[in-house]
Design goal:
Strands 2-3 form a two-stranded parallel ribbon. The protein contains 13 helices and three strands; from the N terminus they run αααααααααααααβββ. Helix content is 59%, strand content 3%. The N and C termini lie far apart (65 Å). The longest helix is centred in the middle third of the chain and has 29 residues, at 223-251. By secondary structure, the protein is an all-alpha fold. α2 packs across α3 and α4 (104-111) runs antiparallel to α11 (263-274).
Amino acid sequence: MTTVTTSRARTPRALDWRLRFAVLSLIWGFSFLLIKVGTDGYAPFQVTLGRLFFGTAVLAAAMAVKRERLPRGARTWGHLFVAALLLNALPFSLFAYSELTIPSTLAGICNATSPLWGMALSLVALSEDRPSRVRVAGLGIGFLGVLTVLGAWQGFDGLDAQGTAMALLASLSYPIGWIYVRRTLAGTGHSHLSLTGAQLLVATVQLAFVTPLFTAFPTRFPLAPLLAVAALGALGTGLAVLIQYGLVAEVGPTTGQMVTYFIPVIATAAGVTLLGETLTWSTPVGAAIVLAGAALTQARPRRRGREDRARATEAEQVGATGTEPTATASTDATAATAATAAETPSTTTPKDRTPQAPPAPPCTPNPNPSATASPRPLSKL
């Protein structure tokens, strides 16, 4: 008598989503510290170019492993050119330049205003996105928090207006990019990984043309800033986007975007403890008000299970946060703009999860569902 023994194939368990959520928060929270360290040795455009290069390399490796191809079609690449500018090249460069004159803590808090900008823009650009009184109140509260952070009652004394304006413009660029991606790249049939990888590649090419026009080739390569730039790109723009897409697919966009609210907290803690940046009472108080307002702008009526599943499916679309999450948002992060990011949207079928549109990330997280009720690219940070 023969005994046949069957062994069940064991599939490795993915890390618990809470652990991945914590890792993503730390990566994006420390991004502002890494930018500050990077600009100590290299010009802002050089920091951004290095960041994009290393981020693109990570996504290229992921695409090779999954045998993904770059998208096709001149129209798609034209839209990717604009998305790359709004979600990666422009905000990344603005944040790098802003940190020449403002602390990384302030830059991290300015990044948290992406959901507020997104809410304001959605009132104009997205006619189907009707805000409730709670969300409008959140918008007002959020901008009151911004004024608190900036010390408006003191006449913005001691504040570098140019650097702060650059950081706020960078945060504004994410939701503009998310809305653009939603209108142009959602439903193209390409996977979110393919679109995000292509978007980062285009942004890298953009910076490769711009950087030599405004900066001289470095005569020396200080190690610490170089490592900071490499970590900023490989972790904050590459790995973070991949982690965020996995989170959104597993726990849905609502939970996934919550990382946006941890970024300024971690950025502030890192800047104060590791860089010795000073902190006045108005900074944490104002940051708390900003985050409370941003949270209210995300408030939506409770949806039924079927609609929730549909939104989770949407969140797998394309785009690139990583982000500067985005928060977001943006979120951001955006991803999906993503990613963006970033920030920061996507649509997939529940069965095979093949993305049809964009999610937020990363490159920055898409911390702003109000600007992209469907998945968005991340680009944030």
